[in-house]
Structure formats: C-alpha cells, structure tokens
Amino acid sequence: MKQPKRILVAIKDPAARTMPAVRKAAQLARASGATLELFHSLSETVMVDALEARRQSLREYEQERHAAIMKRLELVARRIRRHGIEVTTAAEWDYPVAEAIVRRGLRIEADVIIAERHATKHVASWMLAYTDWELLRHAPCPVLLVKQARAWHRPVVMTAVDPFHSNAKPSRLDLALLKASAQLTTDLRGSLRVVHCVPTTAVVTTAFMNSPSLTDVAESTLRKARKALAVEVARVPCPSHRLYVVEGSARDALPEAARSLKADIVVMGAISRSGLKRIFIGNTAEAVLDALPCDVLVVKPGSFKTKIPRRGRGAQLIALPTAMTG
Predict the structure, then answer these.
(1) Whether 200 and 292 share a structural domain
(2) What is the phi/psi pair of residue 42, to 5°?
(3) Based on the domain organization, do 101 and 204 belong to the same domain?
(4) How far apart are CA 80 and CA 132, in angstroms?
(5) What is the pLDDT of residues 137-150, one digit of tens each?
(6) Is 93 helix (H, G, I), strand (E, B) or coil?
(7) Same domain, yes or no, for 184 and 260?
(8) How far is CA 168 from CA 114, 162, 163, 165, 174, in A?
(9) How many structural domains are present in the chain?
(10) How many CB atoms lie within 10 A of CB 196?
(11) Which residue among 54, 179, 208, 265 has the highest number of C-beta atoms inside a 10 angstrom radius?
(12) Contact status, residue 295 vs residue 263, Cβ threshold 8 Å
C-alpha cells in the first residue's frame, strides 16, 4: 500500500454516537496528508405500496432520505475539518452494501477503504458479518477493517508473511504486505512486528526424516525459517522492527501472536485460488480473521481485478402482489 492520498470511509450508521472507523480514518489522514470521503450506502428496502399509501412518489422519498443522510454526514465531516483535514461526503441509493462501497471506491480511486466491523445479533461478537467478507473479497484496494473502538496511540503493527511462499502464495504479495506495514507504521509512528508461522507438522516431519534428535532438527528448521524471514524483510526498507517465527497452525498461532505482541493492527494478504470464486486470506482459514482481537488491514496482489460491476443498482424496491394488497 502506497501512502494514501484518498481514503474512503464506509459509514455504517450515520446516526451512531461513536464511529471508530471515522476516528481512525481521521488519524491516518492527518498523519499521511490524505483526504477523506465519508460514504453511506442507502441500501434499505423501499416498500412501493407504503409510498403509494402515503401519496409520496419514489423520487420524493429517495430525495428526502438522501438529504437526511447527507445532513448527518456533514455534521460528522464538520468535526473532522476542525483538525485541518479535507473531507467530502457522499450517499447513494445502491445495494448490497459491500458492492456499493466497492463501486464508490472505484469511482473516487480510493487508495484504501476503512470500514467498521458489522456486528450482528446472529453471530458471536468477534465474528465478521457477510458484508465484511464481501467487502474484503471484492475491494481491489486495501481494506482496513476496524474491530476495536479505542484510538491508536503509537500502534503495534503486526504483519504475517510467508518467506517460503508455500501454498502458491506469490512473493510479490509479501512485498506488498511489507510495504503496506512499513508505510502504516511510519505514518502512525508505531512499531513493526513481522511474523512467520511454521506449521508444527513441518517441524515434526523434518525431524523424523532426519532423525538425530527431535529437538535439534526442530530447532534447525526454525533457524532456517528465521533466516528466510530476515532475507524477505531485507527486500523492503522497513522502520525499526522485530522478527518472530512462531510454531503452530496459522489458524491458532497468528491470533495468539497478535495477543502476545499486543498488536493494534494486523496486516494480512488475500489471494484468489484457481477454480474457486472465493478470496482466502493468505494461506490461512477464514477463522483467523474472526479470531484476531484487533484491527485488520487486508492487502491483495496488484494484479487483482474486482468483478463488481461499475454501474450501481439504485434503490431496492419491493411491491406486494395485487392479491395480497387487495
């Protein structure tokens, strides 16, 4: 991720009393000199029959709701502008929410999208909602998903890389991750931690194949991993940082490392797998993102192209069948 010039902030609820995503976007904008756009997708279902009963046209209703949302967004923007940050606001009738955000990001050529995690009543508090996953999968630019309300103060930025590029993970993605982490750490005056996860199976298998001593061979495997990690990190100018090789499955080891290192932001890579339409986060299970206790920046390879159509859908309309209304 290059130093952001244009940050799109997806506003989930313009009437919310607290907006962690907006606060953190303002922090990043002030540190990097970027401009902000506060955007809300008017995605609620419009009941045509209810409008007819109120003798209100669809156009009138759309304009009324749009004006109300823009008024709220401007109130938020006004507070941010007091800190010398350039802010614009926008609201559009479009759905589903994730697609609308991606479309807006494409239109304004956003360098990064910042969004607050969508908590729902139907999943555990740490889990990501469908909208979050769709945004992470389809946005072509980096997405910073805010999971913690507290503001950043010299944050610990942890990035997960794979110097051996296993599971067909491209080396250029690790470079993108390191560059994004370095930029974020520098802008926010934080500290950088670079982590590589060595699966326990790799350590044990190597030990049994070579045999002398399980402990000696396991330590040798970990030393090779540390050396490979150091070589990988040396490819990118990074601010002061520390390297860590952790043993265990990424599903468990990465969230544990984030907790142990008191990470405020974890930077991860997303790659698409051939034959599948889904986007997976690095070489890990989706459970890793759910389990991370902090904010997450997801970066894709530069070659990634979104399949989201550029043209918006407009308002989501529903009209009850005549038999039901009469």
Answers:
(1) yes
(2) -80, 90
(3) no
(4) 25
(5) 899 999 999 999 99
(6) strand
(7) yes
(8) 28, 11, 12, 6, 12
(9) 2
(10) 25
(11) 265
(12) no
Structure-block tokens of residue 79: 């507070």
What number is the average pLDDT over the span 186-204? 83
**Do 300 and 160 belong to one domain?**
yes
Residues 10 and 132 in one domain: yes
Both 265 and 288 in a single domain?
yes
Task: Please check whether residue 230 lies inside any domain of the structure.
Answer: yes
**Predicted pLDDT at 322:** 55
Domain assignment present for 145: no
Q: Which two tokens stand for residue 179?
A: 């560059």
Radius of gyration in angstroms for the set of CA atoms belonging to the chain, rounded to a whole number: 22
**Residue 269 exposed, middle or buried by CB count within 10 Å (0-12, 13-18, 19+):** buried
In this structure, is residue 309 part of a structural domain? no
Give this prediction's pTM. Answer: 0.86
Based on the domain organization, do 89 and 169 belong to the same domain?
no
Strands (E) in 177-225, as ranges, are 191-198
